[in-house]
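for the recovery benchmark. tokens below, seq after
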């Protein structure tokens, strides 16, 4: 255990920190649980209320949502964890269906979580970002049917978790990979009877469709091969699903919220993006695909809400 703890700490310090676990409450390591004081919880609940109200006002019934997690800025990445938010059909309005890693059982599962719980998963309670992409009909309706059909949702769920899972491999799966493969399950050709009971075949067909449609995973350039060797000491990092050519270049190709959003933007005319951030008592809302400036700094066209 000491060896694993030292490896994890060193990995974070040297730049492998992005490979956190999709835990039920947040993108974090299984043995960490950030404590929130009453004031922080209150701000995050109010932040979630603004997001829910904006979703209600949008007229949408479904949205792809993502939240910021560990600091991935050295890779130019803001968002680490994505899910599908539904206005109806789950426990509460706009609950988020997502993959999470059950640390106790050591397996990925599906998890439904209200917007407030989803926002409480922000790694930094003092400042955080949430991205929302709404879809036009018929894409939204098709994805809603697929996500609410638990059998189909489970067919897209892998059996082994890896935080840095290769986007086009069925050996492992990470949180965002499930969302990407659900897009294929909803929008791509339906599996034929010959693969009706084959989980891996369902996932392979989904990945083939994504590749054919131009889906491009995010590329993480680790830049220092010994860091990748260090990852072998961490149980939720793996290399055996990545091509040797990529490993030789010290890079991983991984499904992330940004790659999912870029795919949707290119493929679905009429998809619209909202971005929210909170810093202290300030909430900023951006409409459009251009990101909010770092530090949650509002531009002229943005909406700013001040919490008393």
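predicted aa per position
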């Amino acid at each position: 255990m000491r060896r694993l703890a030292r490896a994890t700490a060193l990995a974070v310090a040297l730049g492998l920190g992005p490979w956190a676990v999709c835990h039920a409450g947040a993108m974090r390591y299984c043995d960490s649980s950030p404590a929130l004081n009453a004031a922080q919880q209150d701000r995050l609940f109010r932040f979630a209320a603004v997001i829910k109200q904006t979703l209600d006002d949008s007229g949408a019934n479904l949205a792809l949502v993502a939240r910021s997690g560990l600091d991935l800025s050295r890779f130019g990445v803001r968002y680490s964890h994505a899910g599908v938010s539904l206005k109806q059909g789950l426990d509460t309005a706009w609950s988020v269906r997502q993959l999470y890693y059950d640390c106790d059982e050591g397996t990925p599962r599906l998890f439904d979580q209200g917007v407030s719980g989803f926002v409480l998963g922000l790694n930094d309670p003092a400042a955080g970002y949430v991205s929302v992409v709404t879809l036009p009909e018929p894409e939204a309706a098709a994805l809603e049917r697929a996500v609410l059909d638990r059998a189909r949702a489970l067919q897209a769920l892998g059996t082994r978790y890896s935080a840095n899972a290769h986007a086009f491999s069925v050996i492992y799966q990470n949180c965002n990979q499930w969302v990407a493969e659900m897009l294929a399950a909803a929008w791509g050709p339906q599996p034929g009877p010959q693969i009706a009971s084959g989980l891996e075949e369902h996932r392979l067909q989904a990945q083939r469709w994504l590749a054919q449609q131009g889906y491009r995973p995010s590329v993480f350039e680790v830049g220092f091969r010994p860091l990748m060797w260090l990852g072998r000491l961490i149980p939720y990092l793996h290399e055996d699903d990545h091509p040797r050519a990529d490993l030789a270049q010290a890079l991983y190709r991984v499904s992330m919220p940004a790659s999912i959003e870029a795919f949707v933007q290119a493929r679905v005319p009429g998809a619209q993006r909202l971005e929210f951030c909170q810093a202290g008592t300030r909430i900023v809302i951006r409409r459009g695909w251009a990101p909010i400036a770092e530090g949650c700094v509002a531009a002229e066209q943005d909406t700013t809400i001040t919490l008393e």
